[in-house]
Records
---
Amino acid sequence: MNTSAEKVVLEAMGLPPALRAFVAEKLIESLDAADMPPLSAKWTAEIRRRCAEVDRGVAKLRDADAVFAKAYASLK
């Protein structure tokens, strides 16, 4: 690995968990950005709102397998 990249990784690992997650998210977004058009401001705001609800513990989360099973069953 390049020494500059190693330095960045070491510095990032020293950040608090929430900031490490933010950095990781931004890096992943930068990889995905080349394949997809940018999100509209409305979608970006909606994503942030939903993430904030999850972070505050007020969102009702459901198991993905159960959600997909119910959706597939409704198609039959």
Note: The helical segments are 3-13, 17-32, 41-56, 64-75.
---
Amino acid sequence: MAGGLLAAPLAAEAQRLQSYEGRVQWIAGSTLILMTDEGWSLRVDLTRVPQSDYSGVGLRDRIIVSGTLSQDGNYVRGLSIERVRSDFQSP
């Protein structure tokens, strides 16, 4: 029964929408690897992300990925990607 008690918090966490900001390490097919500002890499499943969200996204681009953790906590099921402008210009 202890296994069920430990699995419940992970399952609840997996259902909560989260956002992760960082730079694209690589992107291929339906997988993106994001390097966060904290220095860890996240594998992102892009199958639920509209292609228009990530078309044109390239290496080292800053993005915010929104999604949920997989049940096992090994990757993020992406739902959307937003590009972050890091080069602000004054008027």
Note: The longest strand covers residues 18-28.
---
Amino acid sequence: MLEKDRLFNVLLSAFYSLTVASLAALGEQRLDLYISMLTLEYTVLYALLRPRRRWREVLLPFLLVVFSYFVVLRVIEVLGL
């Protein structure tokens, strides 16, 4: 079990670093894009590796709520409402 936890932490930090560096190199300024990409990476890794937690997972529901909020804002922007 400990190996899955370590793999999750190593992959998550590597993906986060790569994502932030790539978006910064592209000159991206929107904070919602950064948060959305990091949320998607966390969710996918969590679903694939299922790391063991001492307490209930509280970060994932919070991140999904924030992600949904940004998606709703983008949809409203596109629809022009």
Note: The chain has a mean pLDDT of 91.
---
Amino acid sequence: MKILPANIEQQIAISSGLLAFWSLYRVAWSLYLALTYNFVFGSLIFPIVLWGVIGVAAAIAFFARYSKAPASETNPPNQA
């Protein structure tokens, strides 16, 4: 049973994709700071792990939505 309309589900999936991209950016930036300034590495462990977990969860939600394409989109009818 679907609770949300299709357009709301699509907006949630797009938001999940953007969140996954933003999380990847945050992890990359935190790793850059940690490698550039050695003295802040200890304080950056928690944000790196946190944004990594958020990004993985958002990516799973994004790919779960877009891996389920309707049958009409995956197998277009043959035109003669």
Note: The chain has a mean pLDDT of 84.
